[in-house]
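Memo to structure team: turn this sequence into structure tokens by end of day. - J.P.
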Amino acid sequence: MRIISGEYGGRKLKAVPGMATRPTTDKVKESMFNIIGPYFDGGKSLDLFAGSGGLSIEAVSRGIGHATLIDRQYQAIKTINDNIAITKEIDKFTVYKQDADKAIGLLKGQESFDLVFLDPPYKTQEIIDTIQKLDSSALLNSQALIICETDQHAKLPDDIPGFSLFRRQNYGITQVTIYQKEN
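Reply from structure team:
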């Protein structure tokens, strides 16, 4: 795994030890950022299931101003912090060891985001519920993009109230579904 492009491009990232996480492949990550960016002029991102932190670090490398990373596993948090240290700009990142639902409650009223990454264990219902919780907690800026990474069996809907389908793309067994918050 590596940071593909931007300020930190080419730097290697560590993977979370064990089988509890599945990192986004470089191919999928590069395609994902080509769709949503590929570069940003500030803004804030949120990753509720951060794993190694690779998606958020890539976003900051490409111009996102600040990234908030959430994961509930100790090994993931340790790996995220190690990977953030590679950037030498730790002030651009906030990391919480927290369950995603509790993190939404913690962030409510304090933050709002332009870009959200959702790559939970492959469970369809949680993604839809999580998007609705983010929206009802006022954590999403107008036109915010929500990038969902699932397997092809997840069958995420085209329509979610308050959101439009921005793009859906398959990469082998991985499917990336991107929603955009409507005004």
